[in-house]
Design goal:
Helices cover 39% and strands 18% of the residues. By secondary structure, it is of the alpha/beta class. The protein has a single domain (3-123, 175-224), classed as 3-Layer(aba) Sandwich (Glutaredoxin), CATH 3.40.30. The strands form 3 sheets. The protein has a 5-stranded mixed sheet with strand order 1-3-2-8-9. A two-stranded antiparallel ribbon has the order 4-5. A two-stranded antiparallel ribbon has the order 6-7. Helix 4 (97-113) links the parallel strand 2 and strand 3. Helix 1 (3-19) runs antiparallel to helix 2 (31-49) and helix 4 (97-113) packs across helix 6 (206-224).
Length: 225
Amino acid sequence: MKKGINVLYGFVVILLIVACQNNSGNKIDSDQQTTALDTASKSFKAEYENGNGTKSKSGKTHISVEVENDSLIIYATEEDILELENGIVLFGFPSCPWCRNIIEPLLDFAKEENVQIHYLNIAKIRDKKELQQDSTTVVTTEKGTEGYRSLLKKFDGIWDSYKGLKNDTVKRIYSPTVLFIKNNKAFEKKSGTVESQKDAYVKLTPEQHEELKQIYKDIYLRYKQ
């Protein structure tokens, strides 16, 4: 992320500390929240659109993502999500090709249902683990944040197992994951895109876009009941 975006992100966090205190995570209904959303939307737009056409570490080209100026994005910290009573959270980061593919369907869903999407960039907050040579002992090779580990613990039952560790009790938040939180508990999540997508560096077709958007809508209908 560029320096200018980091500065803007800090400003967004300050705004949202107040704006989100009494936020139910559902409908947008205050001028203060609208101002915070506008600032966050511009930052999010820059964060993702700056990656359009760039190369991944493997040399593949990232798809182009278009983010509207008035997208219903709210930047969040780990602590914000831990305290969130009701809401929808996107765990991802802009250099994740799968995450880039869900942005447009997710934001279309949010706009149509008039709901906020709380966004946590997880690129640098996660623990990294691997198996030792005995193939049974799991070791942490890179320690993530305390907030990340608190999220793993609080919503333990919803996360997927850490791949490659041969231990289903060790969990990981994969990108992208869209988590629906209800009454401060994990309600349901959707990870990844759609089953028919095989290559993250190929943009979703219009049909796949609609399919994924409908998945979010279906979860939201259950969530509202």
